[in-house]
């Protein structure tokens, strides 16, 4: 079934933010901490490096019963038989991607405005929406203007697909997002850049549990 796991944290890997640990070791730490969704998002690595890293991360995810999602790259997602593919407004069109990946792989789609949220309603084959940036982020230099909590409220009220909040999410924002009804929290720097990834996951989940 094409559904995101019943979980909370959606970790997005980034070698640059990983304190030198690299993507595979970071994925291992996240999985050992109980994270169940991991996205691979490296835009500038050579094809061979991306393939090797994704093969290793996919194996780790499978061993931990976690969902492995690849950003942007339809061919890479197919090559490593990822569990999911994430696409944005400027990537392969979702209808075309769905044709290429078949009907088993999850497909996530980014929306950054109310207009894009509305338009996504009519696009078949999308399994969840990545909504953001919610807050300002330094991790994605070409990100749209932050939509704030109002963008999330709009997505929650107007889309029947699962909503993944992304962009500038730190431990401090988890309460506000969770109380708003956001179930999935996507984070890059806060998670992969944490000195102690296990402790960060524990801290995030303690906040969620307290909401
Ligand atoms: C969960 C999630 N949501 C949004 C994005 C952003 O996708 P996109 O707009 O295509 O930007 P890039 O990540 O490709 O720079 C995402 N990756 N994941
Ligand atoms: C990959 C990505 N996509 C975004 C979007 O708004 O679609 S913001 C973003 C980067 C999020 O990084 P951090 O958690 O370090 O702020
Ligand atoms: Mg993209």
UniProtKB/TrEMBL annotation:
EC numbers, comma separated: 2.5.1.3
Top-level division of the source organism's lineage: Bacteria
Pathway connected to this protein: Cofactor biosynthesis; thiamine diphosphate biosynthesis; thiamine phosphate from 4-amino-2-methyl-5-diphosphomethylpyrimidine and 4-methyl-5-(2-phosphoethyl)-thiazole: step 1/1
Binding positions (Mg(2+)): 72, 91
Keyword annotations of the record: Magnesium, Metal-binding, Thiamine biosynthesis, Transferase
Binding site for 2-[(2R,5Z)-2-carboxy-4-methylthiazol-5(2H)-ylidene]ethyl phosphate: 137-139, 168, 188-189
Record InterPro entries: Aldolase_TIM, ThiamineP_synth_sf, ThiamineP_synth_TenI, TMP_synthase
Domain called Thiamine phosphate synthase/TenI: residue spans: 10-190
TM region(s), chain numbering: none
Name of one Pfam family that matches: TMP-TENI
Gene Ontology molecular function terms on file: thiamine-phosphate diphosphorylase activity
Top-tier EC class: transferase
Binding site for 4-amino-2-methyl-5-(diphosphooxymethyl)pyrimidine: 39-43, 71, 110, 140
Cofactor: record remark: Binds 1 Mg(2+) ion per subunit.
Catalytic activity: 4-methyl-5-(2-phosphooxyethyl)-thiazole + 4-amino-2-methyl-5-(diphosphooxymethyl)pyrimidine + H(+) = thiamine phosphate + diphosphate; 2-[(2R,5Z)-2-carboxy-4-methylthiazol-5(2H)-ylidene]ethyl phosphate + 4-amino-2-methyl-5-(diphosphooxymethyl)pyrimidine + 2 H(+) = thiamine phosphate + CO2 + diphosphate; 2-(2-carboxy-4-methylthiazol-5-yl)ethyl phosphate + 4-amino-2-methyl-5-(diphosphooxymethyl)pyrimidine + 2 H(+) = thiamine phosphate + CO2 + diphosphate
Cofactors, names only: Mg(2+)
Similarity field: Belongs to the thiamine-phosphate synthase family.
Function, in words: Condenses 4-methyl-5-(beta-hydroxyethyl)thiazole monophosphate (THZ-P) and 2-methyl-4-amino-5-hydroxymethyl pyrimidine pyrophosphate (HMP-PP) to form thiamine monophosphate (TMP).
Family annotation (PANTHER family): THIAMINE BIOSYNTHETIC BIFUNCTIONAL ENZYME, THIAMINE-PHOSPHATE PYROPHOSPHORYLASE
Protein name: Thiamine-phosphate synthase
């Amino acid at each position: 079934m094409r559904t995101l796991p019943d979980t909370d944290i959606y970790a997005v890997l980034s070698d640059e933010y990983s304190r030198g640990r690299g993507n595979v070791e970071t994925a291992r730490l996240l999985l050992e901490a109980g994270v169940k969704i991991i996205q691979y998002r490296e835009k500038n690595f050579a094809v061979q490096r991306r393939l090797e890293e994704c093969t290793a991360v996919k194996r780790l995810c499978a061993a931990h019963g976690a969902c492995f999602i690849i950003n942007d790259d339809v061919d890479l997602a197919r090559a490593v038989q990822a569990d999911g593919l994430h696409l944005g407004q400027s990537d392969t069109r979702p209808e075309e991607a769905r044709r290429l990946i078949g009907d088993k792989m999850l497909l996530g789609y980014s929306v950054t405005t109310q207009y894009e949220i509305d338009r996504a309603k009519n696009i078949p084959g999308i399994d969840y929406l990545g909504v953001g940036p919610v807050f300002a982020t330094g991790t994605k230099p070409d990100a749209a203007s932050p939509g704030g909590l109002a963008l999330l409220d709009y997505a929650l009220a107007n889309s029947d697909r699962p909503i993944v909040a992304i962009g500038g999410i730190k431990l401090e924002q988890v309460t506000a997002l969770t109380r708003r009804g956001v179930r999935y929290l996507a984070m890059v720097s806060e998670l992969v850049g944490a000195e102690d990834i296990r402790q960060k996951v524990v801290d995030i989940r303690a906040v969620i549990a307290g909401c």
